[in-house]
Amino acid sequence: MKKSYDIVCIGMAIMDSIIRGFEPEPVLSGFRAESGTLMAGGDAVNEAVAAAKLGLGTGILCSLGTDAAGDMIEAVLAATGVGTDLIQRPDEHPTPVTTIFVKEDGNRRSITNQAHSYNFHPEQYMDLFDARAVVLGSLFRAPFNDPDVIREVLTVAKLRGMLVFADTKLPNFRRLSLDDIENLLPMIDFITPNLDEAEHYTDKSRVQDMADVFLEKGVKNVIIKMGAEGCYFKGRGTAPAGNMGSDTEGAGSETLEFRVPAFTVDTVDATGAGDNFIAGFASEILRGSDIKKALQFASACGAICTTAVGAGTALTGRSQVEEFLAERNL
Q1: Which of 96-100, 139-143, 151-155, 253-257 is most confident?
Q2: Contacts 24+ apart (CB under 8 A), 227-232
Q3: Per DSSP, which regions of 178-247 are E strands?
Q4: Reported pTM
Q5: Residue 292 backbone zone (phi > 0: left; psi -120 to 50: alpha; other: beta)
Q6: CA distance 100 to 112
């Protein structure tokens, strides 16, 4: 029997070892840091945890090893209310582990390994669920750095009337360009690159030009995350409430374009801010919100995320985000 969800997040599940305040100068037999934290992470995990906290019926389609790290991640997901029935746990691959070095300003650098590029095939499991929407955790990263995988997942999603949200990452083990998946981009309703990613994939320097490249290749709506500068939207708008996931153009053929400012918070760790952003945005779109209000809500989710170490720590629920916005008269 198929499981029904509001949203299913598809992508990577990782154990994050977060090192804050790393001191690069060795001390006797090793190095020192302010803190070290072990957290469940990865794009699909971060997005699913945030979406579930925001009240969506949320599932996750990912791969975990049959190891202690996999057990820990699955337990975190279940405790947060994320449906774990779609998780695949093959014996042959360990759960990926990432070491993340967080600077004082919250920016970070990470170390990945070959476990991040194992050949997980989510397209083989699309028949296991129905959903109003799916999130591609990281387009251009495994498992969505294979055009055949992307094609099959998106084709099934659109045939079933699902709304498609796609976050992006810069490539690591396998390089993929927009041209490589140009014929697949029209199946994406919302794409959410950050500024560096948008510049990399479009070879443009102005956000308007970056967005135009995605739109010209068929993506319906483009959201470019610009950090402290907020985010930029350009696109058709979304389908009306009650018709989510269709290929209609919603408000019509007129193109919408605007910016939403960022929120100022005391940033501790930016890990997972983009994942919380897209989960918040999808949450509001599925509730029938207009684009601008959904982006304000998404920006609040991303800002709240940065106020604690780890992607799934600071955000607690929808009422917290509503209070955050109300305090800012929004």
Answers
A1: 151-155
A2: 227/194, 227/195, 227/262, 228/262, 229/261, 229/262, 230/259, 230/260, 230/261, 230/262, 230/299, 231/259, 231/260, 231/262, 231/277, 231/295, 231/298, 231/299, 232/207, 232/208, 232/258, 232/259
A3: 190-192, 221-225, 231-235
A4: 0.90
A5: alpha
A6: 9
Q: What is the pLDDT of residue 221?
A: 97
Look at residue 116 in the predicted model and tell me its pLDDT.
63
- The helix/strand/coil state of 299 is helix
Cα–Cα distance, 118 to 14 (Å, whole number)? 12
CB distance 37 to 22 below 8 Å: no
**Computed from CA positions of residues 179, 171, 154, 94, in that sequence, does the dihedral angle turn out positive or negative?**
positive
User: Facing residues of 8 across strands?
Assistant: 59, 134
Contact 67, 40 (CB under 8 A): no
Residue-level pLDDT at 232: 98
Instruction: Give backbone dihedrals phi and psi of 41, rounded to 5 degrees, phi first.
Output: -150, -160
Strand partners, 10: 61, 136
Cα gap 295→106, rounded to integer Å = 22
Question: Tell me, what amino acid is at 187?
Answer: M
Question: The tokens of 53 are what?
Answer: 């906290």
- Counting other chains too, the contacts that 287-291 makes at CB distance below 8 Å and 24 or more residues apart are 287/241, 288/240, 288/241, 288/242, 291/221, 291/233, 291/235, 291/237, 291/238, 291/256
pLDDT tens by residue, 20-42: 888 888 888 888 888 888 999 99
The reported pLDDT for the residue numbered 190 is: 98
Interval 204-241: pLDDT, tens: 999 999 999 999 999 999 999 999 999 999 998 754 44
Q: What's the pLDDT tens digit per position in 54-82?
A: 999 999 999 999 999 999 999 999 999 99
Alpha helix segments (H runs only) across the chain: 43-53, 68-80, 147-159, 195-202, 207-216, 273-286, 291-305, 318-326
Neighbours of 144 (CB within 10 A): 26
**DSSP-assigned letter for residue 328:** T
